[in-house]
């Protein structure tokens, strides 16, 4: 099912049709979960945010502009929920505890989810260590394939800021890989 | 390999290894069902409030007693119509009084429009009121609910005028 076909179901779901809800969840949950998991590392937090994203999906459906792609709207919701959670987390938890928890969770997650794969993961580990502001740009650009202008729109920041964060992120990633110049990457 | 390509490839592979835990479905579903319940509750409350506003608006103009039921008959046909819906002769008398009051305060054209709108509103009102005089707003179709809102919006300025004159 493509995203256009999904819209009537989404509308039905907002009106209380549970089978429509199941269908929408099935079609979107991996995308939602993975996007959140790229941005937040603590498993219970990821799950809370996913839950919030769906709640927002029902309650904000009336604001959805059908001329724009559904995923674009969805990814906007995800990013806003993650940022909202980050703001709340700062208020809620003392910095010290948060850092300790994050470090521990980060290793758990890496072990379980990533190292099983046979790929070389140095680059991905680098991405995970980027600051949130740089990382969100990298995820939207290279995982979701958005143009920098679209990223600016999703994050509600100027394009110039996105460009500089994108540039800085690539610079950080290249530095770790001892780039020899241009886009060429030597292992 | 260019870093662009490498990043895309690594992120895709990493994503493939991050599966949404199946138990999350239960949580999201719970939240969804709660949302639907709340939403239904809210819209019911809205309808109730609306009915309350209409009732209040009808009762606001101070009643002027009238001896004949000409105007009420124009709306309902006869008092038996409201008696079938839990109304009494006294209610009918009161309605006649309100309509007479409106006639005295509005211009001829305004009163004509007012009567027409009131008639439409009362038809809807009768539809949702059972034998015991209890209202069931949920009996209205979506179209009728829209009509209800439109009629009350159109009636509002008349009520204001009737009420304003009554007070002054």
From TrEMBL, chain A:
Task: Specify the RNA polymerase sigma factor 70 region 4 type domain's residue ranges.
Answer: 125-173
Keyword list (alphabetical) reads: Sigma factor, Transcription, Transcription regulation
Tell me the superkingdom of the source: Bacteria
Keyword Transcription: yes or no?
yes
Q: Where is the RNA polymerase sigma-70 region domain?
A: 25-92
UniProt cross-references to InterPro entries, sorted A to Z:
RNA_pol_sigma-70-like, RNA_pol_sigma-70_dom, RNA_pol_sigma70_r2, RNA_pol_sigma70_r4_t2, RNA_pol_sigma_r2, RNA_pol_sigma_r3/r4-like, WH-like_DNA-bd_sf
Of which family is this protein a member? Answer: Belongs to the sigma-70 factor family. ECF subfamily.
What name appears for this protein in its UniProt entry? Sigma-70 family RNA polymerase sigma factor
What is the native source organism of this protein? Paenibacillus terricola
Automatic annotation (TrEMBL), chain B:
Q: Which Gene3D superfamilies match?
A: putative ecf-type sigma factor negative effector from bacillus cereus
Q: Which domain of life is it from?
A: Bacteria
Q: Where are the transmembrane segments?
A: 49-69
> Which segments constitute the DUF3600 domain?
71-166
Question: Entry's InterPro entries?
Answer: DUF3600, ECF_sigma_eff
Which Pfam families does the entry link to? DUF3600 (PF12207)
What keywords are annotated for this sequence in UniProt?
Answer: Membrane, Transmembrane, Transmembrane helix
This protein's name: DUF3600 domain-containing protein
What species is given as this protein's source? Paenibacillus terricola
Task: Cite the source lineage.
Answer: Bacteria, Bacillati, Bacillota, Bacilli, Bacillales
